[in-house]
Write a structure and sequence with these properties.
Elements lengths: L2 H11 L4 E6 L1 E14 L6 E14 H10 L3 E9 L2 H11 L4 E8 L6 E7 L2 E8 L5 H15 L5 E5 L9 H10 L3 E5 L13 E2 L3 H8 L5 H15 L3 E5 L5 E5 L3 E5 L12 H14 L4 H15 L10 H8 L3
Parallel strand pairs: 1-4, 1-8, 2-6, 4-5, 8-9, 9-10, 10-11
Antiparallel strand pairs: 2-3, 6-7, 11-12, 12-13
Helix pairs in contact: 1-10, 2-8, 4-5, 8-9
């Protein structure tokens, strides 16, 4: 069977996969406009806004990336009782193949990332966020244990460091006791909370923050392997932007996958696409090499789009047929 046919068969197999996504959700808001003059009040551009757009970000973008490809997806997270939270819920509820389970925290504001864009250039980002309360997080952990009983093929923890994954260590333990795979997109410098997961997917900057800067390729592999062993992971995947991605796994497994981006326009949310497609591919039975090829194809498409984005089945098929 040719590699092209393997990828096409994998794409067809995704509609038999079930994924549980847990993590920080946010509303990505965009204000688009024109700049024709500088403010007389301060040396800053005046943006005359002519349109706006809202999209799902964080763990919600991960779940939507999977659902768009036909994966039966469940999203478990926390939002506030506010307009942003309602907008986020509406967006998710209108997505096919996606079941949202949102805990409403009366004491927080839903996370919002507001980007101001003029002439395709991001001028400013404004963040609104407050961490979830302990009572809500405890309820969410209880819900997580219930969702495990629905036997998802794989669990994704999408960590943006906003508090929704405070109980990540407990979630990993619950998942492993149920013999379920758990893949994590990590955040921060404390990776001990991810111990005993199956896979983590740091980008190169995130990995360097934990293991230090590497001198060459061999040094990168050595540092990543030491971290993998320390955390008792099955594998560690480093996403490396224009350098593609590298997987370091058990039994001295090392796989390098070159990038396939036709044109890099915006890398926002590319990590969401990678972990969604890689996890779905593995759940559908792909080996690491094929799963990485599939994730690279998807990521190469989304970085050519503005903001957090997804890839369609037809877009993936088009890229596969170019191989």
């Amino acid at each position: 069977m040719t590699n092209k046919q393997q990828l096409l068969n994998l794409l067809d197999a995704l509609n038999s996969v079930k994924i549980l996504v847990v993590g920080d959700v946010m509303l990505d808001q965009y204000w688009f406009g024109d700049v024709n003059r500088i403010s007389p009040e301060a040396p800053v551009p005046i943006v005359k806004v002519n349109r706006s757009q809202i999209r799902c970000g964080g763990a919600a973008n991960v779940a939507i990336n999977a659902a768009t490809l036909g994966v039966d997806s469940i999203l478990l997270s926390v939002v506030g009782n506010d307009e942003a939270g309602k907008n986020l819920q509406n967006l998710v509820e209108n997505q096919q193949n996606l079941t949202p389970i949102f805990h409403i925290d009366q004491n927080i504001a839903t996370i919002v990332k507001l980007r101001v864009i003029a002439k395709q250039q991001q001028l400013l980002r404004i963040d609104f966020e407050t961490p979830p309360t302990r009572q809500i997080l405890d309820a969410k952990l209880s819900d997580f244990a219930k969702q495990i009983q629905n036997n998802p093929n794989v669990i994704i923890l999408s960590d943006y460091g906003k508090g929704a994954l405070t109980h990540s260590s407990e979630m990993i333990k619950i998942a492993k006791n149920a013999n379920l795979q758990i893949f994590i997109d990590p955040k921060g410098s404390d990776y001990q909370k991810y111990k005993n997961a199956d896979l983590i997917t740091p980008n190169r900057q995130e990995l360097a923050q934990v293991v230090g800067s590497w001198h060459d390729e061999n040094d990168l592999i050595l540092r990543a392997e030491n971290l993998r062993k320390d955390l008792n992971l099955k594998a560690l995947l480093v996403t490396r932007s224009e350098e593609g991605m590298t997987l370091i796994g058990e039994n001295n497994l090392v796989i390098n996958q070159p990038a396939r981006a036709l044109e890099v326009y915006d890398v926002s949310g590319a990590g969401d696409t990678v972990i969604a497609t890689l996890s779905a591919a593995r759940a559908a039975g792909a080996d690491w090499d094929l799963a990485m090829q599939f994730a690279t194809l998807a990521a190469g498409i989304v970085v050519g789009k503005l903001g957090t984005a997804t890839v369609s089945v037809e877009e993936i098929k088009t890229e596969i047929n170019k191989i």
